[in-house]
């Protein structure tokens, strides 16, 4: 009987399904609910020391639906980090560790480009009992104006410096969350590993414009007639997330063995999760999926992942983590492999046509049979 239980960076998780930072981890009440529903770990909505600067707008989401079924497959948000006070969060972290001592509680944190602020937020979250950290250096909207989020995440030098400040004081595992809004995700991932982070998480949302209303001619989501580019998530981003996770996993495999990857972007089923694990993820996060399907979706996801493991006779998550990575190569290598395979197939076919005795000559294949016996 396979098991979903897994240990990642010393954290003991009942399963690899983690609530990704966002509305599904936005206060103590919903985080408790996620633990009760059986999530392997919960990452809270990103917290900062001074929430008074965080002012959200309504509406702040825009969605794309299938023309045939109406199902939502793309989701843009212009939501900021948590607008709830840091002291309230600290009280809730403590209460959650009392009510759910075995629940793995991960603090998503973000601060301005300031060493004291980053080190203070780490220390105070640790005192409140959180089990580990995710550094949000990847929010594509709002925060860059304050030199936060993607402004840091898109600059590997700044990212490495922030990670070093955190690693100087953190006694719990640290994952740095990557922005996909870069040309080579390997560069910020390497910067986080150089700074000593145990893992990285990928991906945050992709900078996007969800659409333009053809009656009003205003772009969406429309806030008093205007908008700002937001972050794209949900099923539509999964192929991009898988590609970036593959690229980070190759860096881990060849340069930083033992470091970990938490994969996310469009996960809605156990089969989706299996693909992230096959490309090297140790855990798999879900954010928008929970907003579409509710906290209970972890039940079917666990069943689907177990069914996949049973089918392939994998006993543990580690048995198949990264198993599909060796099958990525260059395009020129694909061309070479295909030419070799075709030549081998032709040689085999020619061999079959080569008669071994005169009784095998047939009228229909006479010319081919003659060719097969010929040189030149
Ligand atoms: C409404 C919304 C709010 C989000 N807020 C945060 C946040 O506060 N911090 C963060 O690191 N990521 C945040 N994210 C990004 C998600 O954690 C995740 O990286 C991204 O949405 C891709 O995963 P998904 O397709 O499972 O949602 C948010 C996403 C959404 C949709």
Automatic annotation (TrEMBL):
One of its GO terms (cellular component) is cytoplasm. GO terms for molecular function: dihydropyrimidine dehydrogenase (NAD+) activity; NADP binding; uracil binding. CDD domains: DHPD_FMN (cd02940). It comes from the Bacteria. Gene3D superfamilies: Aldolase class I. Its EC number is 1.3.1.1. GO terms for biological process: thymine catabolic process; uracil catabolic process. It catalyses: 5,6-dihydrothymine + NAD(+) = thymine + NADH + H(+); 5,6-dihydrouracil + NAD(+) = uracil + NADH + H(+). Keywords: Oxidoreductase. Residues 4-309 form the Dihydroorotate dehydrogenase catalytic domain. Transmembrane segments: none annotated. Pfam families: DHO_dh (PF01180). Involved in pyrimidine base degradation. Catalyzes physiologically the reduction of uracil to 5,6-dihydrouracil (DHU) by using NADH as a specific cosubstrate. It also catalyzes the reverse reaction and the reduction of thymine to 5,6-dihydrothymine (DHT). Heterotetramer of 2 PreA and 2 PreT subunits. This is dihydrouracil dehydrogenase (NAD(+)). It comes from Botrimarina colliarenosi. The gene is preA.
